[in-house]
Every structure is written in structure tokens, then in C-alpha cells.
């Protein structure tokens, strides 16, 4: 009976002994495995750090950039500007259309019954006041019938031409119309709820669809006296100097009416901003590379956008050629190269 009772205690002693032996063997194995100047441990640490580096967000030093050759820069017209402080103004933006001023239109007609003998101008020729436009001969009896010169009453462009050689014309028939586009109106309609902010004399920046790289300046010279009942708008007339005749009647325009100013803030040209996939970003120049940089934008007007986060004064941002930098087709075409 006592022998039977001692068996469990013997089994426990044997089990503890076996466990100690196994633990010792494992400890020795690990000791010799990790010997060798810590090479195995260093390898493990390197693997861990490499994995963490891959997961970490890119900094400018690690970000993928685009390198452009000088030829590529010329081809896309690449241009940059320095980030700095700019005034952000309060503007009202409306669509507009170019119109000639009524006082700058003139018509040319014979005062007698006549036959057109000669025409000296063509449609849209630029003429000067006093220049001969055509010669007509009187149809009244005479020997010989007198030859009469029709001259331009003002300088401008021939906007209408209806003088055929040999044609008999009656007094008062309009043979030519001249428009002087050296000063034009750009007309637009301000929404009723914003019309209280607009007044005669306010400065206006005018952008043209046909001339996207230019901005013209003008001022409001007239406002409509009532609200247009269907559109619920108030009509405005903006006078714009046009000495080179770049603004042509019936061109579409955008009127940016300056109605207030804000404090000066860190800002970039609106042309620098790009949007894709819910992100707003710019391309900055770093050395010979161009890097994408996400930004947070605050208040904006038609010229500048406030940068709340993402840029610092002195950064060089791309304002022209940035769409080409964004285009995967452009990059894959071999003009730009990715660098690390």
C-alpha cells in the first residue's frame, strides 16, 4: 500500500528533471544560434527598420520628383513664381460680353444720287479720320458729273462694307460703318442679392476666354436702374481701354468686380493650384526637380489663393506647365523622368 502511494511523488520528480534538461538544451541552442558578432540580431533589426521606412510618409527628401530637360521646359512653357504674402480681395464674378460704345460708331453715306466708281478699303481695315474710303460720281446732269470722295469721319475699323463698284446708290444708303474699339464696354449682369455691393466707379478686372493669359482693367461707368424681372439681375457697363484692339465686339468675358479687401496673407497665384482625387496640390521646384505638394487653401479671389498649410515663403511653385507635370501621358512620353 505504501509503494502504491509513493508512485505519484516519483513521477513528479522525474517530470521536473526532464523539464530542466529540455530548458537547458534550448538555452544552449539559442546561445550558439545568436553568436557571431550579433549578425542575426542586426539582420532582424534591419528588416524591421526597412519595413517601418516603407510605411512612413514621404518627406521632400524621399518624395518622388520629376526631372525635366531644358527642351522639355521650353516645350511646355514652364514658369514658376515665389511664394509670398499677397492681398486677397473680395470680388463678385459675373459673365460679360464686349460691346462697342454707341458714341464710337459712325456711318458713311453719299448725300446725292451717285454711282460707285472706286472703293479703297476692305472689311475690318483700320482707317484714320479723313481717310478716303470710296469715290462716287454724281448721277445729276453735268459735264462731266462731279467725282465725290467719301471719307472716314473718325478713326477705327471698317465694321460694315457695302460699296460695289458700278452700283447706283441713293442718298443716305450706308456704304460703310466704322467702329472705334480703342475704348469698349464689357457688359454683365450682377445677381440681385449682390447688387447692393456694387456701385459706379468700382475697379473691375476683366478676363477673356480668347485671351487667357491677359487681364484687362476697367471700372463701372453705368448701372441699370431696375432689376431684370426674369433673370433677377442688375445690368452693369464696364469701360475698358483697348488701344491694341484686342477686345472685339461680342467676345465673351469674365468680370471680377472688386467690392472689398482683406488682410495680406501667404498666397500663391490661382494658376498654381491643381485638383485631383479630392486633393488640392501644387508643384514646387527643388533643385532640378519638381515635386508634388499637397496644400490647404483658405480665402481666394480671381488672382490669388491663401495657403494655410503646405508651403512657406520662398518656395518656388509652378504656375505654367503644371498640368503637363500632372499628366501621366506627358511623363510616360519620356519628356519627364521620375527621380528619387
Structure report:
By secondary structure, this protein is of the alpha+beta class. The protein folds into 4 domains: 2-55, no CATH class; 65-87 and 263-339, conserved putative lor/sdh protein from methanococcus maripaludis s2 fold (Beta Barrel), CATH 2.40.420.20; 91-101 and 182-262, Efflux pump adaptor protein, beta barrel domain (Elongation Factor Tu (Ef-tu), domain 3, Beta Barrel); 110-174, OB fold (Dihydrolipoamide Acetyltransferase, E2P) (Beta Barrel), CATH 2.40.50.100. Helices cover 19% and strands 44% of the residues. The chain contains 5 helices and 23 strands. It has helices spanning 2-33, 39-55, 70-76, 322-326, 328-332, and strands at residues 65-68, 79-82, 84-100, 105-108, 114-119, 126-127, 132-138, 147-151, 156-161, 168-169, 176-179, 183-191, 203-208, 215-223, 233-241, 252-269, 274-276, 279-286, 289-294, 296-300, 304-309, 316-320, 336-339. Strands 3-12-15-14-13-16 form a 6-stranded antiparallel beta barrel. A 5-stranded antiparallel beta sheet has the order 17-18-19-1-23. The longest helix is centred in the first third of the chain and has 32 residues, at 2-33. It starts with a helix and ends with a strand. Mean pLDDT is 83; it is low at 1-18, 28-59 and 329-335.
Amino acid at each position: 500500500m505504501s509503494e502504491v502511494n509513493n508512485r505519484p511523488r516519483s513521477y513528479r520528480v522525474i517530470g521536473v528533471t526532464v523539464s530542466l534538461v529540455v530548458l537547458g538544451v534550448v538555452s544552449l541552442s539559442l546561445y550558439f544560434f545568436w553568436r557571431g558578432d550579433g549578425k542575426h540580431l542586426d539582420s532582424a533589426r534591419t528588416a524591421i527598420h526597412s519595413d517601418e521606412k516603407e510605411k512612413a510618409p514621404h518627406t521632400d527628401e524621399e518624395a518622388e520628383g520629376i526631372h525635366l530637360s531644358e527642351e522639355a521646359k521650353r516645350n511646355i512653357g514652364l514658369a514658376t513664381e515665389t511664394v509670398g504674402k499677397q492681398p486677397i480681395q473680395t470680388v463678385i464674378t459675373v459673365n460679360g460680353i464686349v460691346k462697342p460704345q454707341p458714341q464710337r460708331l459712325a456711318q458713311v453715306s453719299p448725300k446725292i444720287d451717285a454711282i460707285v466708281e472706286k472703293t479703297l478699303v476692305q472689311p475690318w481695315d483700320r482707317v484714320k479720320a479723313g481717310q478716303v474710303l470710296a469715290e462716287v460720281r454724281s448721277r445729276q446732269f453735268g459735264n462731266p458729273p462731279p467725282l465725290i470722295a467719301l471719307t472716314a469721319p473718325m478713326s477705327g475699323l471698317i465694321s460694315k462694307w457695302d460699296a460695289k463698284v458700278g452700283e447706283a446708290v441713293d442718298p443716305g444708303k450706308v456704304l460703310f460703318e466704322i467702329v472705334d474699339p480703342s475704348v469698349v464696354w464689357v457688359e454683365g449682369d450682377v445677381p440681385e442679392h449682390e447688387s447692393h455691393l456694387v456701385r459706379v466707379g468700382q475697379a473691375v478686372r476683366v478676363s477673356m476666354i480668347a485671351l487667357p493669359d491677359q487681364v484687362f482693367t476697367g471700372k463701372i461707368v453705368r448701372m441699370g436702374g431696375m432689376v431684370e424681372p426674369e433673370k433677377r439681375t442688375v445690368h452693369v457697363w464696364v469701360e475698358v481701354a483697348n488701344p491694341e484692339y484686342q477686345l472685339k465686339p461680342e467676345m465673351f468675358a469674365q468680370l471680377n468686380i472688386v467690392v472689398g479687401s482683406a488682410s495680406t496673407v501667404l498666397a500663391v497665384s490661382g494658376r498654381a493650384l491643381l485638383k485631383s482625387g479630392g486633393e488640392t496640390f501644387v508643384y514646387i521646384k527643388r533643385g532640378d526637380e519638381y515635386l508634388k505638394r499637397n496644400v490647404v487653401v483658405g480665402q481666394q479671389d480671381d488672382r490669388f489663393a491663401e495657403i494655410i498649410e503646405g508651403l512657406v515663403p520662398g518656395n518656388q511653385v509652378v504656375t505654367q506647365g503644371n498640368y503637363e507635370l500632372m499628366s501621366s501621358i506627358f511623363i510616360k512620353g519620356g519628356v519627364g523622368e521620375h527621380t528619387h
